[in-house]
Amino acid sequence: TAIAQNINNRSGTVYLCSKCEEPIRDRFVLKVLDRSFHPHCLRCVYCEQLLSSKCYLKGGQPYCKDHFYKQFGTKCSMCDEGICPDMVVRRANEHVYHVSCFQCIICKRELRTGEEFYLIPTDGRL
């Protein structure tokens, strides 16, 4: 996680934007680690959402929280989609599931806490 610092550029220092490589002549400069951005240039590489206060970096690329965890976070054992840390999940042994994915593979009924189920050991299906 990187915090995008909004630097008040009263000193007149000219920074180069890490995305568009143009000089930043705005009053405010977004700084992420050692890189500078125009406020309109710091965007998630996946969805283009503006990242004005917090971003996640991987391979030098900025991501919004949702897309960072979808790409690089824990994956659901049923659908293989990413799981964000603030999502409610179900766990079985070492497997993690979205609540809606914690279901019987035959009848598709969502399983609840305390219900008995059989876990297919090779692939984590229920």
TrEMBL record:
Q: Which residues form the LIM zinc-binding domain?
A: 15-74, 75-126
- One short Pfam name that applies is LIM
Superkingdom of source = Eukaryota
Its annotated compartments are:
Nucleus
Which GO CC terms are listed, alphabetically? nucleus
The Swiss-Prot or TrEMBL record annotates one GO molecular function as: metal ion binding
> What keywords are assigned to this protein?
DNA-binding, Homeobox, LIM domain, Metal-binding, Nucleus, Repeat, Zinc
Question: Where does this chain mainly localize?
Answer: nucleus
An example GO BP is:
neuron differentiation
Protein name in the entry:
LIM zinc-binding domain-containing protein
Organism, as annotated: Wuchereria bancrofti
